[in-house]
Amino acid sequence: MVFPGMGPFRFTDVGEFLLTNPHARRRLAIADEVVGYSVFDRYRQSDADEEAQYAEHTQIAFLTVCLSLADWAEETLGERPELCAGPSFGQRAAVTYAGALPFEETVRLTAELARCEEEYFRQEHREAVTHCVIHTPEERLQEALAELDAEGEWHDVSGYIDQGFYLVSLREPVLDRFKKRIGELGGYNMYTMWPPVHAPAFGALRRKAEEEVLGGFEVADPKLPVVADQNGELLTDADGVRTMLLDTFNRPIRWPDMVDTMREHGITKVCIAGPDNLFGRVNRTVDNFEVVAIDARKAMRPRVRQRSARRARR
After folding, report:
1. What residues does the Malonyl-CoA-[acyl-carrier-protein] transacylase small domain cover (predicted)?
2. CB burial string 218-252: b at 16+ within 10 A, e below
């Protein structure tokens, strides 16, 4: 079971699912109680606001959708995974699904980390963003980054997704120029994220998150092994899970390493539980696994009951 990283997603794609699916309604009620407001209402009201794409309530809504879809896949499709994984923000759903952190605590963790990050980036790396590029061979990317080096511009590679597919953190004032250069080198620009993520330069944020947030949570040994998104390590104890949650702030994600680990452990099928336009579609995934997309539309689609064998013979 793979829980995707959080990219831009719209209320119109998941709103009906959140409102009507029993798993989602149950989890939303828990989330509302934890944070003290209606996650559904805030998400609906802010849907058109680009600045709220990664806001606290949007993150909680995404978490709720992903876990509710996994619940649905177990109940309706009979999925019984042997491992779970969650690149980037998908970590939160993965550790909950694996039993290392109760849902209530993950909601609280998500809310507190969102506030922690917002406070940090108001004071440090205030101009930083993370940008996604695709169809960009590594040598071409390094050429573009070398040009930033020559100008004295900071940058970090924040994610290795597939061949030619990277997340790059840099200052927003040079973003347009960087995007133009990527295009000139034959690459393609996707979306840009704020707050920025997974950059080695954010070591102070990792320390802040550990001291002010994660230190107040008790992480348990996972009941289901979790594939770490920084190096593909298979995590079976609480210390490993806690380290992964902290390393997300200043270590890049490496999806190819995660794929290698899953293959080494005999995985042949992955269910992508949640809104995803990335991890379930890249070549590294589809070339190695049968991919089952578990999204809100699929969960809302009426399922046709199979006719009995006797009736079928008639």
Report:
1. 132-193
2. ebeebebbbbbbbebbebeebebbbbbbbbbbbbb
Q: Give the span between the Cα atoms of 56 and 197, in whole angstroms.
A: 15
How far apart (Å, rounded) are the C-alpha atoms in residues 177 and 236?
A: 44
Q: Report the run of H or E that residue 127 belongs to, with start and end.
A: none
Give the tokens for residue 14: 């998941």
Question: Residues 224-271: pLDDT tens digits?
Answer: 999 999 999 999 999 999 999 999 999 999 999 999 999 999 999 999
Tell how strand 253-254 and strand 269-273 pair up: unpaired
Assign 158 to helix, strand or coil.
Answer: strand
**Which residue in 260, 90, 255 sits closest to 161, CA to CA?**
255
Q: What is the pLDDT of residues 97-126, one digit of tens each?
A: 999 999 999 999 999 999 999 999 999 999
Pairwise CA distance, residues 293 & 72, whole Å: 12
